[in-house]
From TrEMBL, chain A:
Gene Ontology terms for molecular function: ATP binding; ATP hydrolysis activity
Species whose genome carries this gene: Prochlorococcus marinus str. MIT 9116
A Pfam short name: ABC_tran
Record key words, sorted: ATP-binding, Nucleotide-binding, Transport
Domain ABC transporter span(s) in chain numbering: 6-259
Record-given protein name: ABC transporter
Lineage of the organism: Bacteria, Bacillati, Cyanobacteriota, Cyanophyceae, Synechococcales
From TrEMBL, chain B:
Name of this chain's protein: Putative multidrug efflux ABC transporter
Transmembrane helix is among the record's keywords: yes
UniProt keyword Metal-binding, yes or no: no
Pfam hit, one: ABC2_membrane_6
InterPro entries reported in the protein's UniProt record: ABC-2_transporter-like
Species the sequence originates in: Prochlorococcus marinus str. MIT 9116
Sorted UniProt keywords: Membrane, Transmembrane, Transmembrane helix
Transmembrane segments: 28-46, 61-81, 118-138, 144-169, 181-199, 230-248
Length: 331, 264
C-alpha cells in the first residue's frame, strides 16, 4: 500500500490585515490608532497526499492555494490544525525535513543574478551537504534532463526567462528532494518552454517517485500532470478527487457533429428524437449525455447514412473556469 | 558539525559572494572612496587645533583618523537594508526553506565585500601618506593582529545589532527606519567624528557602557598606537557579542513564526 507523505487535518490559517478608512480623516485616524482585522484565509481543511502522487491545487486568485503550499513547506505557521509532511511538522523547519523538500515559485528567483547558474548550483550543493563530486554528477544529470548544458556558464541576467526557469528548477532539485512544491512554475513561459517543463516534471516524478504539489493557472499544466486535484474556494476545499471525474461532472453533455450523405437523411435524423443544437443542410449537431454516447452512436450509425462524425469535448479552460467560481461539487 | 558548517557552507558562500562582489568592483571602489568622512574630520580637527585640548599630537590624530577610515572600511554593515529589500521582494522565502540560516548569506556577502574593498582602502591609504608623510608608521605584528581581531569583533557587534533590527521586518515593513535611530549614537559615540577620549570624563564613563566606542574608536586606537585598555576593550567587545547573539536568536525565531511570506 502506498503510504501518505502529507497528512493535513483541520488546517486553518488567519492573517491580521490592517484596515484604513478612505480620505484624510481615515489617514489621521489610521496614524494614531491602527486597526486590523483577522481574516481566515484557510478554513478547516483536511486532505492526504500519497507518496509519488502529482496533485494540483485549483482555485481563483486569493482562494488560498499558495498559502496552503507555503504552510506545507514550512514557510508560514498554521493557526490551527495538524500537518505532517514526510513525518515532520513543517513549521519546525528541521534540517532533515528541509533536505527533503523544495519550493519553486514562478518568477521568484534564488539564482545569483550576476553570476552564471553553475555558481548557484555549487552553492546550493554545499548548503545541502553534497560533496563536489556528487554535486557535479547531479548537475550533469539534471542539466541533461533539462537540456541546459550550454547555459550553465552564462550569467543569469543574460538568460531568457525559460532558461532561467530551468536553471531555477535545477538549483531547487540539486538535493533530490522527495517533495516538490511548485507555485505557478510555468508562469510567463512560452508554449514550448511550458511543454518542456511539464515533460521534465513528469520524467522527474517517474524516475524518483517524488511527490509533486502544484498550483497553476495554465490548465495544460494541470491536465497533463495531475490525476488528482484539490479545488480551493475561499480557503475551503470544494473538491478533492480525480480530475477526469470532475471534468465529467462539470461537462455531462458532449456534442456530436454528424455529416449526413444527403439532406434527406439529415431531416430524418432531425426528427428522430435527439436534442438538436443546430442544423445546416446535411450537417447536424446533437447534444448527448455522456452515459448515452455509445448507444446513441450505435443508433445513428445503424439507421442513417453517415458520411462523417465528430465528438466535441467542451474546452477544458471553460470547465476549469467553472471550477474557479463554484463552491461545491457533489460527486 | 560547526567545522563542517564553516569549512563547507561558509567557505563556498564566501567564494561565491566574492565572485559576485567582483562583478561590482567599480561600485565598491566608489563606496570605499565615499568613506572618507574621517579625513574631513581630521581636517576640521587640525585646522582648529582642537587636538591640543585633548593632548593628542597632530601626527597621532592623523594616524587615528586614518585608522578610523580603515576600521570603518572593514566593519561597515548594511544587512538591515539587504534583508528588508529581500523580505519585501519575497526573496527571503527560498532562503528560509534551506538548511542554512539566511543571515549566513548576508555575513558572507559582507566578508566578501570587505575582501574586495581591501585593495581600494590600501590605495586610499597610500595617497593619504603622500599628503601626510609625517604620519607614516608601520604597526608591529602583534598590534596589527590585535587590531584585525578587534575590527572583526566590531564588525560582528554591528552585524548582530543590525540583524536584530532587520528581524523587525517580520513585524514592520520598514525596519531600516529603526536602524536610522541607531545611526545617530553610532555617528557621535563611536569615534567616527571625534576620538572618544575628547569627551568629558562623566560622559565617557557612560559611553563605555554602550557598544558604540568599541565599534570604531577602540580598534582605531589599537591600530594607531594610542594608549588604550586592550584587554578591557576586547572583553567588552566579546561581552556585547555574547549579549546580542541570544537576543538575535530569540527575535529570529519569534519573527519566523510571524512570517507571512509577503511578496512571494
Amino acid at each position: 500500500m502506498i503510504k501518505n507523505i502529507i497528512d493535513v487535518k483541520n488546517l486553518s490559517k488567519s492573517f491580521d490585515i490592517a484596515t484604513k478608512e478612505p480620505g484624510l480623516k481615515g489617514t489621521i485616524k489610521h496614524f494614531f490608532r491602527r486597526q486590523s482585522k483577522s481574516i481566515k484565509v484557510i478554513k478547516d481543511i483536511s486532505f492526504e497526499i500519497k507518496e509519488g502522487e502529482i496533485l494540483g491545487f485549483l482555485g481563483a486568485n486569493g482562494a488560498g492555494k499558495t498559502t496552503i503550499l507555503k504552510i506545507l513547506c514550512g514557510l508560514i505557521y498554521p493557526s490551527e490544525g495538524s500537518i505532517l509532511v514526510s513525518g515532520y511538522l513543517p513549521y519546525k523547519r528541521k534540517e532533515n525535513f528541509l533536505k527533503n523538500i523544495t519550493l519553486i515559485m514562478g518568477q521568484k528567483q534564488q539564482l545569483i543574478w550576476d553570476l552564471p547558474p553553475i555558481e548557484s548550483f555549487y552553492l546550493n550543493a554545499s548548503i545541502y551537504d553534497l560533496d563536489k563530486f556528487e554535486a557535479k554528477k547531479r548537475i550533469k544529470k539534471l542539466s541533461d534532463m533539462l537540456e541546459i548544458e550550454d547555459e550553465l556558464f552564462i550569467p543569469v541576467r543574460k538568460l531568457s526567462l525559460g532558461q532561467r526557469m530551468k536553471s531555477e528548477l535545477l538549483a531547487a532539485l540539486i538535493h533530490e528532494p522527495n517533495i516538490l512544491f511548485l507555485d505557478e512554475p510555468t508562469l510567463g513561459l512560452d508554449i514550448n518552454a511550458q511543454r518542456n517543463l511539464r515533460k521534465f516534471l513528469k520524467k522527474y516524478n517517474q524516475e524518483t517517485n517524488a511527490t509533486i504539489c502544484l498550483t497553476s493557472h495554465y490548465m495544460k499544466d494541470i491536465t497533463s500532470l495531475c490525476k488528482r486535484v484539490i479545488c480551493v474556494h475561499n480557503g475551503s476545499i470544494s473538491y478533492d478527487g480525480k480530475l477526469d471525474l470532475l471534468l465529467k461532472k462539470l461537462s455531462p453533455i458532449k456534442e456530436i457533429l454528424i455529416v449526413c450523405r444527403s439532406e434527406e437523411d439529415a431531416i430524418k435524423l432531425e426528427n428522430s428524437g435527439f436534442t438538436i443544437k443546430n442544423k445546416t443542410k446535411n450537417e447536424i449537431t446533437i447534444k448527448v449525455e455522456n452515459t448515452f454516447i455509445t448507444s446513441s452512436l450505435k443508433t445513428i450509425l445503424n439507421n442513417f447514412d453517415i458520411e462523417d462524425l465528430y465528438i466535441n469535448e467542451p474546452p477544458i479552460d471553460e470547465i476549469i473556469g467553472k471550477i474557479l467560481i463554484q463552491k461545491d461539487y457533489d460527486i | 558539525m560547526i567545522s563542517n558548517l564553516i569549512q563547507r557552507k561558509i567557505f563556498t558562500l564566501l567564494k561565491v559572494q566574492y565572485s559576485n562582489m567582483l562583478e561590482y568592483r567599480v561600485e565598491i571602489a566608489l563606496w570605499a572612496i565615499s568613506g572618507v568622512i574621517p579625513f574631513f574630520m581630521l581636517n576640521i580637527w587640525t585646522n582648529n587645533n582642537l587636538n591640543e585640548s585633548i593632548n593628542i599630537s597632530d601626527v597621532m590624530l592623523s594616524r587615528y583618523f586614518l585608522c578610523v577610515f580603515f576600521v570603518r572600511q572593514f566593519s561597515v554593515v548594511w544587512v538591515v537594508f539587504s534583508f528588508e529589500e529581500d523580505s519585501l521582494m519575497g526573496k527571503v522565502s527560498p532562503y528560509l526553506i534551506q538548511p542554512l540560516n539566511p543571515f549566513f548569506r548576508y555575513l558572507a556577502q559582507h566578508l566578501a565585500e570587505q575582501i574586495t574593498r581591501f585593495p581600494f582602502a590600501i590605495i586610499i591609504a597610500f595617497f593619504f601618506f603622500i599628503f601626510n608623510p609625517g604620519s607614516i608608521w608601520i604597526p608591529n605584528l602583534g598590534i596589527l593582529l590585535l587590531s584585525i581581531i578587534s575590527t572583526f569583533l566590531s564588525f560582528l557587534i554591528q552585524f548582530l545589532i543590525q540583524s536584530i533590527v532587520a528581524c523587525l521586518c517580520f513585524w514592520t515593513e520598514k525596519a531600516s527606519s529603526i536602524e536610522r535611530l541607531l545611526f545617530i549614537p553610532t555617528l557621535f559615540l563611536s569615534g567616527l567624528l571625534a576620538p572618544v577620549a575628547s569627551f568629558p570624563e562623566y560622559v565617557k564613563s557612560w559611553i563605555y557602557l554602550t557598544p558604540f566606542p568599541y565599534l570604531i574608536d577602540f580598534p582605531a586606537n589599537i591600530l594607531s598606537g594610542n594608549t588604550t585598555n586592550i584587554s578591557g576593550g576586547l572583553s567588552m567587545q566579546i561581552l556585547w557579542i555574547i549579549l546580542l547573539f541570544p537576543v538575535f536568536r530569540k527575535i529570529w525565531f519569534a519573527g519566523t513564526k510571524k512570517y507571512t511570506a509577503m511578496g512571494s
